Amino acid sequence: MRSPSSTGPAGLAERPVVPGTVRPATTPFTPRPVRRAVVFDLDGVLVDSFAVMYEAFAVAYKEVVGDGPAPFDEYRRHLGRFFPDIMRIMDLPLEMEEPFVRESYRLASQVPVFDGVVELLTTLRVRGLRLAVATGKSGERARSLLGQLGLLPFFDHVIGSDEIARPKPAPDIVEHALHLMGFAPEQAVMVGDAPTDIASAHGAGVTSAGALWALSETDELLDARPDIVLARPADLLALCPSVPGD
């Protein structure tokens, strides 16, 4: 974890540059690896799925558990994890998964893409970066949603929590994305809006970027100590210049 001494106007952590300073001869200059890949979480980063998620969760709770308020606020605190894992943590029936998934598919057309995301993905692609999604959703459901929203062609890989051995907060899903794209951890950045995303990035040795644009409360994400904080999607571009030709 870096400890920056100043913060740039877009919320990006920066080290101060003192004009005219010379590095000591005993400290060899190590160039920063070129970032060649970005791994994104899906919900709360690329798409604003919370209203649909709330409705699907409420229907599933009523069908399986019965009347009464569905504990969606608690559910949302665990986002980034695989749905069955959240049910176990919350001590709710695993049978809720079937109606939750059914309603999520039914309502998928109502999920909006966050402002600035299409422009961000387009620019990253033009700059030569490879892109992947690593989500708490199942892979099939994530690819279906991204396809319906027209975002799927931007991504080389979309990986769901059912497609790796250990879902977030373990590093497996980020490591798998890097393996599929053929990059080392220092060549990538992971963008997420939940502590599970940041933990997964840290475990994989990848720079972690906390996305704030969907959050009304940021304390839990900031407590996870992301390396960089992004106030809006376009802020990521400062970290991802064009990839030089090999």
From TrEMBL:
Gene3D superfamilies given in the database record: HAD superfamily/HAD-like, Putative phosphatase, domain 2
MF (Gene Ontology): hydrolase activity
Record's keyword annotation contains Hydrolase: yes
UniProt xrefs under Pfam families: HAD_2 (PF13419)
InterPro entries the UniProt entry points to: AHBA_synth-like (IPR006351), HAD-like_hydrolase_sf (IPR050155), HAD-like_sf (IPR036412), HAD-SF_hydro_IA (IPR006439), HAD_2 (IPR041492), HAD_sf (IPR023214), PGP-like_dom2 (IPR023198)
Disordered: annotated span: 1-24
Lineage top rank: taxon: Bacteria
Keywords: Hydrolase
SUPFAM superfamilies: HAD-like
Protein name: HAD-IA family hydrolase
Organism: Streptomyces parvulus
